[in-house]
Amino acid sequence: MEVPLPWERLLWRGRSWSARGERYVLTDFRLVRLGGARSAEVALYDIRDVRSARSTLDRLLGTSTLIVRTRRSEDVRLHRVRRGLQLQGILEILIGDPQQSIDAGAVRAALRWKPPSLAVRLREPILLCAAVLAAVFGVAIGVHGKPAEVVYPDDDAIYPGGVKRDHESVVRFMETSVMPWARSALAPIVGGAERVSCQTCHGDRAEARGWIMPAVAALPKPDVIDRGWERYGANMDAQMRNAIYGYLAESEKQTKAAYMREVVMPGMARILKRPAYDFTQTYEYNRTHFAFGCYHCHQVK
User: What is the Cα–Cα distance from 250 to 256, expressed in whole angstroms?
Assistant: First the structure.
């Protein structure tokens, strides 16, 4: 099987870290499995969705098995793939918009970022509802009880020890650390590194607004949550929104959510020297540890 064909753009090559001896190729048109018992290919527009599975051995090796479910033929499995969660996110972007402008450099940059050590993927409705109830209960305690003090890391990039750096230092950090990372990590989302600018995260008229965050495109509030939570007004801070809305912002129709959660959010948290928001922990834990989540950048509709 010839891959890539002359008119295809090669995005990624990989292999199975098992005894199967399989190799995998992703282009801007199709996903191909070579070797092993049988070769297989599927066009991106024929992919219905992508699931991942991790055995105990996978966790030890840092690999995943991706199950690519198709509309017209049998599923295609990519066995024991390194950076499987990031690859899943890239595939979800491509199948959500097959015309998405994405190049091999953007894919390589995305695959370099390490996801959270414990990837919680609450996809099943029962677990999802349990997470919502736990978050709401934890937030209610935080609102009505005496909140614990936030522990700011001493090496935090913006607020070391809880004291904000001066404007010049923050600008220098943004220019030398954040922007080079953002051009790589956000390229698959916006259609190319050249489209990433300060406005990508800070929105229009950012300087006039004092670079205030959150500032970028609004995420929807899930219907399952009572919109009355917004009545807390000033008390409804980014951490509270992360707890109540955060994980439910993902749905089957939001193909970019997994990539943002598994690549962009932990990558930005690492640059800021903060933990990424951890849905296995309570709201109070994340708040006091100054965790970084979706709603530190995104507004709410």
Answer: 9
Question: Is the pTM here over 0.70, yes or no?
Answer: no
Query: Tokens 């109540």 map to which residue?
Result: 244
Cβ neighbours of residue 166 closer than 8 Å, sequence gap 6 or more: none
Strands (E), 71-118: 76-82
Distance CA(241)–CA(19), nearest Å, equals 45
- Residue 20 and residue 294: Cα distance in Å, rounded? 38
H/E element holding 184? helix 179-185
- At residue 73, what are phi and psi to the nearest 5 degrees? -135, -175
8 A C-beta contact, residue 214 and residue 296: yes
Cis geometry, peptide bond prior to residue 4 (ω within 30 degrees of 0) = yes
> Is 272 in contact with 156 (CB distance < 8 Å)?
yes
Query: Pick from 221, 240, 296: which is nearest to 266 by CA?
Result: 296
> Where along the chain do its domains lie?
10-99, 125-300
Q: 103: Cβ–Cβ under 8 A, 6 or more apart, which residues?
A: 9, 11, 187, 192
Check the CA dihedral 184-185-187-188 and report its sign. positive
In CATH terms, the fold of domain 10-99 is PH-domain like (2.30.29)
Residue 244 has a pLDDT of 64
Give bridge partners of residue 82 from the DSSP assignment. Answer: 63
Burial class (CB in 10 A: 0-12, 13-18, 19+), 262: buried
Between the alpha carbon of residue 222 and those of residues 51, 183, 226, 229, 249, the distances in Å are 22, 30, 9, 12, 6
How far, in Å, CA of 252 to CA of 218, rounded?
A: 18
Low-confidence residues of the chain, pLDDT below 70?
Answer: 37, 97-103, 106, 109-110, 112-147, 220-236, 243-255
Give the Cα separation of 139 and 239 in Å (integer): 9
Residue 245 in tokens: 């809305």
Work out the angle at residue 83's Cα, subtended by the Cα atoms of residues 35 and 97, and round it to the nearest 5 degrees: 85
